[in-house]
Amino acid sequence: MPDNTIILLRPGSGKNILGLPLLLRAILACRQAGLETFYLIGSGSEEELRLVERVKKDRRVLPFSSDLHYFQAGSLSTEDKIKSQELFEWPGSFLLLDGEAIFDPLLLEDLNFFEPQEREIILFKSPADSIPDSTWSGLAVGSGKILPELLAGLLSIKEGENDLLRTLPPTALVSYQILPAGHFFLKVNSRQTEKEATRLLLNTARKPQDGFIAKHINRPISLFFSQRLVRLGASPSLLSFLNFLLGLAGAWLAAVGGGYWSFFLAGLCFELASIFDGCDGEVARLTYTTSDKGALSDVILDASSYVIFFSCLDLGLYRLRQDSSYLTLMFIFLLSAVWYYYNLARYTRNSGIGKKIFLVAKEIEARPEKEKKLSFIDKVAAKLAFAVRRDFFATLVFVLLAMKQAPILAYIISFGWLAESVYFHFYVQKKLVEQSA
Prior knowledge:
By secondary structure, this protein is an alpha/beta fold. 58% of the residues lie in helices and 11% in strands. It has a seven-stranded mixed beta sheet, covered by helices on one side.
């Protein structure tokens, strides 16, 4: 990974894409990837100075704002240039970005595979790019050996010039590489590229572990709303809480026990809560506001929502039919839920997966591929692991309630959760013993 980042500011560096200026988005993406020091080189215009000041005061940047250095091209004296050479000298490599560019944050991880040789600078372009090898497309990785001379050239260019290649030291070794597959890098300099940049960024908010329903139904809907929520400045924590309230509304409708429409609307609220559950994470990823605290609160709110809803479903059926067997089902469910979440807390704490509880289902699903000797029960559990994904069971809940099958749903949930809790208890016991061995 390059050690430091140089960003060449452009007139469009302050353009907002999904709520963040291009410059701020680039800095946050680089910081997330592990780059620590940033050198911003611009024209010194009032608009540009306001942008830099705004970025430095952003709450996501404040903790490392002292690592942001701004230089005005063409304004350094000879003495300042000498000082800047001392400041910029380092033995590693550097990342060079165009300030009007937007890119896949995961692209920076793949740049690790490109280690420039001494005095080499690697310029990247996309496979479909018609830009000839004599032009810079906006992304480069270079050797720290050429940096002092390169910066002296960059800091001497006149306003309006943007041809990087003219500032390269004569001794620099220039090479060209195709952008790593599966990633995007786009200069946002027109209305069309703005739309394309928005589309590409929204796709980065998706999760690779999404199931079929989440991928093809839930995620497109949640991304539609997340795009607008980002522009409104909604925080992920607020969205998590509002989604929890939607789940509580569904639980209340189920507990009323008012008949078909009561259960139907409860199921609809539960399904909508499943769809909108993606918004808080999408907004957090798009705005670089993810945190361990936020992830933990999201997990707790989701778990609480499930327990309250299914308990209220049993209570509503009891009130509707005056059948005490539904109270028994509620007791079985609550006991199973407590047992399951107790084991889940043990496992996440000791396995190192932290708040990423979705990895548990992925582990169980992948067992047949990784372990040759599995019992029949383990094989069945691997096949049915998809059923614990929220997108699947929320849709199942809605469909059964819409089909007037609330009693059947109550039995499926109670005994299904009991079976899952029993299996998961022994699964966790086995895994923890393996880890301690």
